[in-house]
Amino acid sequence: MSKPTVDYSVYLVTDSGLNHPSRTLLQSVEDSILGGVTLVQLREKDLDTPAFIDLARKVHEITKKHNVPLLINDNIEVALAIDTEGAHVGQDDISCTEARRLLGPNKILGISTGTPEEAQKALADGADYIGIGTCFMTQTKSPKRTLGPIGVRAILEALPKDHPLKTVVIGGIKRDNTRRVVEHSAGRNGRILDGVAVVTGIVSASDAKAASQDLLREFRTGYENASNYLQGQVSKEKKKSIDEVLQSFPQLLTTLREKAPLTHHISNYVVMNDTANATLALGGSPIMAPSASEAQDLSKVVSSVVLNIGTLTESFVECMLEAGKHANAQSKPVILDPVGAGATSLREATAARILNHVHVDIIKGNAGEISTISKIVGCDSESIAMRGVDSLGSGFTNPAAVVQALAKREKCVVAMTGKIDYVSDGVRTVAIENGHEYQGRITGSGCMIASSIGSFAAISTDDHFAAAVAGILALNLAGEHAAARDDVRGPGTFRAAFIDEIANLKPEQVVKEARIKAIQLN
Ligand SMILES: Nc1ncnc2c1ncn2[C@@H]1O[C@H](COP(=O)(O)OP(=O)(O)OP(=O)(O)O)[C@@H](O)[C@H]1O
Ligand SMILES: Cc1ncsc1CCO
């Protein structure tokens, strides 16, 4: 019998201990196949060989009926006894070469890998696929380190594009993160995950069939988006032109003032009060809530979330991860302000952790912060030094290209502040020349921009690029108006006048005074 062709799209890995109490494991397997599971692995760590063989025989009856391959975890003896389509081994189990020798050339053989080196070894040792993990923390595994989509990407990029070795990701994969993991892990060498391996997301779901259908749909969408991205086919359709974005500003600000969207801020001690006041002056409604315990409740009532890493503590980080996760689940926009990323390794690691666990819709930072984020996600860019929370030097040689590349890579909007601000969604890129140097001389003006973007993102839900442009324009025009006032004699008086002028903004006047230009990059 020749080796079967395998569709790895949604790969069920069983665990009787986590199986939903309303049905048997056999029912979970059958329901999941009916929902779209394309491959099954029987993983039973606690059964002795005779009991394992007995269960494997019953599961195999089901998988054969539906023409879905069955692999046995770890126990080659069971795989051979039942004549399943193959087996899966871990790094601490029997070696891959020994497993291949016992199974012969026509069985499917997979191995768990957590590093680029293990992946390359698996390829050399004759594996058909690798299970890349652990991606996220799970109930079944609590490793010291999780890979996140960025770590998965590093492994995909260590593999040759055209080798037939297939790849699946494992560890905490659920309906809500599947698409993002597949999109964000896509390697620049053209490698995209061939599937997602799921345990709890299927066996513990109350409806295993529906859960599998959702996972298959999310995997396919993620795969299609990833291949479009790799082929540079980012959709240019349905996007407003820069002029249309500018003309939409009055309506956005008017709606913001009417609706006063509630925005959840996990901000820093230095700017908390200023960002709350700037949000109120603009017409929004802030809640500064740094406790992880209330993040889920808040996610139901707020319209966007701003994560600011300015004064880091463990509890801030815990809250940001929790708020981000729930905002993603509720489809509320998330804005990341990676304050001081690049200044210390803690800030860099925290920014990486957030990007790995939360889908961020808009990243806002100064040149030093954007250079660090570009490095974290594997986008080549010049290095811009930081001193504390401030960016040093004159910035990038080609700032628009850096911002556009990062936006494309992360499939989000990137806003980079400085004397000139740049915004891109990977397709549209603009430079905004408004603003006053006094903004750079008070602390938190960048943080206030993130808050302003957060309020506009709550209104401009289908176009976060327009939200970022509006958020910057509003505050930069207010900055210009404040600096021009006779009563403003320095940064201190400017700070108070700035809040007043945010509240005094006239939507049409902003459009007239905007100095924004589109930047065409190839
Ligand atoms: N020299 C300048 N001329 C005009 N506008 C400026 C100037 N410097 C800063 N700004 C404006 O100030 C705002 C904040 O940008 P900046 O890059 O200073 O933020 P930041 O370094 O992140 O600030 P913080 O960390 O204090 O919050 C932006 O809207 C930017 O346009
Ligand atoms: C000065 C400062 N230090 C940590 S956060 C912050 C405010 C600017 O973001």
From TrEMBL:
Gene Ontology MF term list: ATP binding; hydroxyethylthiazole kinase activity; magnesium ion binding; thiamine-phosphate diphosphorylase activity
One annotated GO biological process: thiamine biosynthetic process
Keywords from the named record: ATP-binding, Kinase, Magnesium, Metal-binding, Nucleotide-binding, Thiamine biosynthesis, Transferase
An annotated GO cellular component: cytosol
Pathway(s) the chain acts in: Cofactor biosynthesis; thiamine diphosphate biosynthesis; 4-methyl-5-(2-phosphoethyl)-thiazole from 5-(2-hydroxyethyl)-4-methylthiazole: step 1/1; Cofactor biosynthesis; thiamine diphosphate biosynthesis; thiamine phosphate from 4-amino-2-methyl-5-diphosphomethylpyrimidine and 4-methyl-5-(2-phosphoethyl)-thiazole: step 1/1
Residues spanning the signal sequence: none
A matching Pfam family: TMP-TENI
Database matches in InterPro entries: Aldolase_TIM, Hyethyz_kinase, Ribokinase-like, ThiamineP_synth_sf, ThiamineP_synth_TenI, TMP_synthase
Key word Heme present: no
Ranges for domain Thiamine phosphate synthase/TenI: 10-201
Reactions mediated catalytically: 2-(2-carboxy-4-methylthiazol-5-yl)ethyl phosphate + 4-amino-2-methyl-5-(diphosphooxymethyl)pyrimidine + 2 H(+) = thiamine phosphate + CO2 + diphosphate; 4-methyl-5-(2-phosphooxyethyl)-thiazole + 4-amino-2-methyl-5-(diphosphooxymethyl)pyrimidine + H(+) = thiamine phosphate + diphosphate; 2-[(2R,5Z)-2-carboxy-4-methylthiazol-5(2H)-ylidene]ethyl phosphate + 4-amino-2-methyl-5-(diphosphooxymethyl)pyrimidine + 2 H(+) = thiamine phosphate + CO2 + diphosphate; 5-(2-hydroxyethyl)-4-methylthiazole + ATP = 4-methyl-5-(2-phosphooxyethyl)-thiazole + ADP + H(+)
Cofactor: Mg(2+)
Family: In the C-terminal section; belongs to the Thz kinase family.
Function as written in the Swiss-Prot or TrEMBL entry: Condenses 4-methyl-5-(beta-hydroxyethyl)thiazole monophosphate (THZ-P) and 2-methyl-4-amino-5-hydroxymethyl pyrimidine pyrophosphate (HMP-PP) to form thiamine monophosphate (TMP).
Name this protein carries in UniProt: TMP-TENI-domain-containing protein
